[in-house]
Amino acid sequence: MWQRLSATQVVSAPKNTRVLEGSRYQTPVSDICQILVTLLAIAVLTPLESLAADASRISPEGLVEGSLQKTIDRIVAKEPGATIILSPGEYRLDKTLKLTAKHNGMTLRGSPGSIIRGSISLHDWKPVAGHDGLWQATLPMPVPAHLSPRLIFHDGKLLARARTPDAGWLETEQTLQTNGPIQLEIPQEHWNSAWQEGSGLVVRAVQKWAGFEQVVTGIDTRQRTLTLPLAAIGHRQEKKNRFWFENSLTDINREGEWIYRPAENAILWKPLAQAGSSSAIPRVDVSLLEALVVVDHAENVTLEGLDFRECGSSFSAQGEIDVQAAAKRRGAIQFRWARHCTLKNSTVSLVAGYGVDLQTGSNSIRIENCRLHNLGAGGIRIGEAVIAPESEKQVSRNIVSGCQISRYGNIDFGAVGVIVFQSSENRISDNTIFDAPYSGISVGWTWGYKESPCHHNIVEHNHIHHLGSDLLSDMGGVYLLGPQPGTIVRKNLIHDLKCHEYGAWGLYTDEGSTGILLEENVVARCMKAGFHQHYGKDNIIRRNLIVDCGEGGVRRSKEEEHNSFTFEQNVVVNTTGHFLHSNWKNRNVQLNKNLYFSNAPQPWRWGMWKWAAWQELGYDKDSLLADPLLVDRSQPQQGFQINSPVYRELGWWPDRSQPRPLADTGPRSAVVSSASQ
């Protein structure tokens, strides 16, 4: 009865139909009725609509036992490598969709209006006694502690978990304990006598490039202290540690705010004004799945034109001390031991972790023309943080291209737009990354000079902008870490980066960065510097344009007994007249054939030296001080005027009669196809 029919079978006339001239045919009324009955049976009894011989269309109403998983499995069992098309509608996942070797060669394609959701709906809202305007709904199933709700949605929009203060943070000069539970001292003016142990009260904090989130395990009213179970990290202490409270009933003071009460397994919510009474409250959805899709030990699987929404992530029940780049957080779409698979023209949004996650043993995966936004952690993570000794476990040769990644870091503030861990030969190109509290692209996961499997990665033609805020420090538009022979960062457009205290750097070679080429990038309006090297070896920085970056342009933090980097044929423009910052005393760095210009009155400075004294040290012997004649200083990617000294003196693209050297900086094509919008 549940049969798959070809397009030919569906449209063919019955055998007893007589076709006459003039495209008319005559047939008995009984036969016509039989045809109509047959077509009706096909429409009602065949949930797998046939489009063509190699494609099946499915709908939410026609799923096998209401399950997308079972429906897909049934199709590929009959026809391996099938193309399956989702009709418009919502596809709810109560379990992670798993695609394995039996799905090899399969394509899952969405239609406009088809949405895959990983959430459940709450409908049975009741007023909370003694709290006007608050409503409560119990989750329909027990929730493991590590999957406590972090994201809930109202009419498809993300709602904020209640917090105090509503914006910003509180400050303490207390040094937080690094060898045991933290006893956080709360000033009298911020102490809340209504706090209760076991209610799920959370303390969140930010420290330099990350922070922590801890569930309060003890409340001492007499001492006005809160016990936090996890020790703080010593080297991330700030002069004034910043923190705030979340998930307390008394924090709810604005429409749309919510908390989760673990003891009752319930969500408390203050509806928006238009929601009215409980009977009029629109649907509220809660994300509980750890992943929406896992492609595991599969090859040549294509996910295309899909809209993935609403996924949770695993969080420790007692809270967590954040690690750099939210490295512990996994993704909503996971590839594990996968080969030659593709995710394209798709959207991933409203998830608690990373959007896409390329895990152990995954190679030749393509992520193309996707839109990732409203993410608890970052956009795309590639590889693992731990080096795998077995070569078959390593992750390599993947491509992330043409994607738009924005509004990430909503839970894990230190997450990254695209991060490459211990992985090689990946290409990150033509992406647009913006509107987040931390770095845009990060490559490498080794601190110091120890050899790692991270090498020959290409980061090119990306547009990275408007990142950072007053929340975190120590970040980069493109952040690099550890030895990376063969890695190239080129033709990226990076601008408008901010930070809390330090570290809004456009190009950032951090601890041990070695053997990296950074060329032909445009960096503008970064709060601290256009290029910064903490420490590293034999990096080459050439033909980059650095314009109006806070401290002046270039920073070198640590002097070592080897060549730090070569800085040549670069153009540095600023308003401060101070081009180089921090440590430049030893001679283990090479600078030459650069152009410097400032609107500030002379004398200009390179470190502590004026120009003549700087050149006497052997630096910038063939460099010049001149106006580079930018076409538009506010849009430096537009390049230089044709008579610019950059062409005559620095040799930028000297063979072109009408050079436009920066025209191809940034993405080369449309960021997101119409299928994913």
From TrEMBL:
Chain segments carrying region Disordered: 658-677
SUPFAM superfamilies, sorted: Pectin lyase-like
Domain (Right handed beta helix) ranges: 333-495
PANTHER family tied to this protein: RIGHT HANDED BETA HELIX DOMAIN-CONTAINING PROTEIN, SECRETED PROTEIN-RELATED
Protein name: Right handed beta helix domain-containing protein
Species name: Planctopirus limnophila (strain ATCC 43296 / DSM 3776 / IFAM 1008 / Mu 290)
High-level lineage: Bacteria, Pseudomonadati, Planctomycetota, Planctomycetia, Planctomycetales
